Amino acid sequence: MSTNTTALAGALRGLSLGPAYWHHRRLIRASKTWTREQVRAYEDGIRAHAAYRAVAPGVRDRTFYRERAEGLLESLPGLTYACATSGSTGEPLAFHHSRLAARQKEWAYCHDMWADIGYRPFDTRLYVSGQNQPDLMRFLPQENAWKLPMQSVTKENMPELLRRIRGIGPFYFLTYPSALATIIDVMGEDEFASLPVRAVMAASEVFPRGQMARLRNRFGLPLAHWYGHSEWAVLGHYDFEADRYLFYPTYGLVEFEPLDDGSGECRLIGSRPCRLGTPFIRYDTGDLARPAAEDGVTTFTAASSITGRNQEYFIDRDGIKRAFNPYVHSIHDDFWDSVRRLQVRQQQPGRLRIDVVPGEGFYAARARDVLVDKFREAEIELEQVPAIPLTASGKHRWFVQEMTAAELPDTAP
Fold this sequence. Notes:
By secondary structure, the protein is an alpha/beta fold.
């Protein structure tokens, strides 16, 4: 493809991003020069919203939106559509999204973060997907992106997968941190280092500082990492210079509500009014974070760390809270060939009970070795069970924290 043709294709894709994208792109650029007073003034405008005043100082959770999903006034036939997401809680959040701006706002903020590592809209991407597909990889021309399902990442597929990945030329790697850890583990560090990866765009899950530093130092790769309920409530990106997560004020209002357990951690409360669709006002995202001290330079709301979803972390043998998802989602597909279902429970610090519904070819000793290796910061008790019950909404819950607030460590780092 000639340079002119490539430029034309990029320009056409840019137009397809939509008016909401370009509107938020202007907001993002303007906000980067705001003083702290201008940021606070913008956030006070959200606090002045009638819906915000009606809720404050209370909060809403996913139960509120799940129960009201069908009757929300913001559901406008032809202009909005119903959405749902559950995550590992097994309890779906339901809301309505604008058809006129679907994903446009999120793209604007993601592209802004990615620009720091050299990405331009519609540069070649390889992104990891949890969705099944018959092909090892699939090309999406409208996005100039290759879709890689996690089911393809096996030792058996690896020779052909490596050949195909090398054949797409230099690319940006869009992935969850846990998926990236699994891919490097299955592929091998030397093979991964040989791929034409330009940078890593790590999405949504908690990415521990140590793992981020190791990835950058071992492979010399630029890294952009963000975390949050990116499509509906809050979104923060990790700033390596400031060593903290920064929340764009123009995405929505972020507030910290301290826990009453003396840990210093806070619930992340997000407010995002919108003209079309579900306005999230003082929504408890279920995320836990530690607010960062003001440094006299940073104007945006900042968090020094994000632990992960409330009740979706386990306590290791040293009393440290660890986000659960990256552990379970880094287990190889080979393990799941002989396991039908799995659920992790914690009743005391440093100890996990893992219930497994065995499948064909299941060997308890082998399964235990895999789980001990993955959850190495805790002792493992493996139990074979005939079934694992679904939640009331028919979802599978991966992790159940059975420790009470009084039993949790008071000062977990």
